[in-house]
Amino acid sequence: MLKPQVVALFDEYASAHQHPTNRLTHKIAIPVIVLHIVAMLDWVKLVALPVLPGGMLTLGLVAWALVTLWYLRADVKLGLAVSLYMALCIPLGRMMPMWSVVAIAVGGWAIQFAGHAVWEKKSPSFFTNLVHALVGPLFFVALLTGDYALKSETAAPARA
After folding, report:
1. From the CB of residue 33, how many other CB atoms can be counted at a distance below 10 Å?
2. pLDDT, tens digit, for every residue of 24-43?
3. Gyration radius (Cα) of the chain, Å
């Protein structure tokens, strides 16, 4: 059962993502955007720590840890799923050439903005509420797992 605060965040996020094609673009773009953000943050080396994989504390690892705390506080099951994906983005990003990370960043954001400009006809919700940048990945995992259903999908059918 989702916490009321998380449901409220999801309801607010869903209201900015009504068009099914826009939601589809987000299901493609959000994982790509998370990958590129984590990979790019991982490029920023902070301090050598031999106990860490790669022997270096990076901004990507710090961001992953902080965001994981936020996600786990929101919902343990969904937070673990998103955190695990983000953790996998670190070694994946390290294996990718820099140009490919930049290319998927451009592609991911183009898909995301196309969803809003072409189908949704409104700006991305994180433009007005920056927390929605964190909500997006959690929201789509919740849809995927069935932990959250869109109001239009749970509405009772009208009687004839």
Report:
1. 21
2. 999 999 999 999 999 999 99
3. 17
pLDDT tens-place string over residues 81-94:
999 999 999 999 99
CA–CA dist 100, 95 (Å, integer): 10
Q: How many whole angstroms separate alpha carbon 121 and alpha carbon 12?
A: 16
Q: How far apart are CA 55 and CA 105, in angstroms?
A: 26
Structure tokens at 15: 């209201």
Helix H or strand E segment including 46 = strand 45-48
Please list, in sequence order, all residues whose beta carbon lies within 8 angstroms of the beta carbon of residue 139, skipping any fewer than 6 positions away: 9, 10, 13, 14, 148
CA dist list (Å): 56 to 45, 75, 87? 7, 29, 15
124: left (phi over 0), alpha (psi -120 to 50) or beta: beta
Distance between CA 16 and CA 1 in Å, rounded?
A: 23
